[in-house]
Design a protein that fits this description.
Radius of gyration: 20 Å
Order of helices and strands: HHEEEEEHEEEEEEEHH
Number of strands: 12
Strand order of the largest sheet: 1-10-3-4
Strand content: 15-25%
Distance between the termini: 24 Å
Structural class: alpha/beta
Number of domains: 2
Number of helices: 5
Amino acid sequence: MTVQTLVDEMQLMFPQLDDATILQQLNNVHYQLCRDYRVRNGKETFSSFVAGTQSYSVPSVNGTPAEIYGATFYQSSGNGTPLTPATVRDLQNTNPGYDTDIYGTGTPVQYYTDGGAIGATSFTVGFFPIPNQTSSGGYPKVIFNVSYYETLVLSSPVSGVSTDQMPPAVGGAQAWYYGTLRRLAERLNDARLSEFIAMEKKERRALAKTFARAEDAQPSNRTVGFLQSKRK
C-alpha cells in the first residue's frame, strides 16, 4: 500500500483536512508504532572508543534509529557482555557525578542514549563507567540492537531516510489508519473519537502478535529509547 493511498482513505473520513495535515499525524503514529513494535530491526556497530571519553556520536548506517533496545560490549573476539540500559536521570540518582572522573575509568557496564530529533542519521551514546581503553583493530566495540524508522512521504522518497510505501508486513496498515484517525479526532473534537480509540487498541493488539512483542502497548507518553517527547 502506498502512503498516498492511506492518506486518501483517511481524507474520506476528514474531507476538511489537506494531505499535509493528515501526513503529519500519520508520521507521528508511524514513529510510535515503529518504536513500540520494532517493525524493522537491525544492528549498528561502534568501535571508536577513546580512553577517558564517555560520550560518542554513533553513525547509523542502516537507517534512522527509532529506539536502541540493547547493547553488547566486546573486549575482543568471542562472547560479548550485555550492557545495562540507563537514563541520565538514573545515573544522576545512583552515581552523582557520573559524567566526571570521580569514579575513575573502567570497562563499561551501562549505556545511555540521547538521539535528538526524528530524522537524525546518528545517535549519541554514553557509557558508565567512563571507558578506559582506546579501540584498536576493531576492539573494544559495542553492537547495538536498533529499531528503525523511515519518514513517510507522498513522493520522492530517499533510500534509508524516507519511503512512499507502508511497511509491507502489516497488511492493510489498520493500526496506522486508526491511530491517525484517533489523533485527528482528538484535535477536532470529533464525535467518532471513542470508536477510533477502540479500533486502534484492537489493531495494536494484532500488531503485537505479528511482531511477537510481549506487551500490549497502548498510546502513551512513555519514554522509550532516546526520543523523549510526546509526538503531536
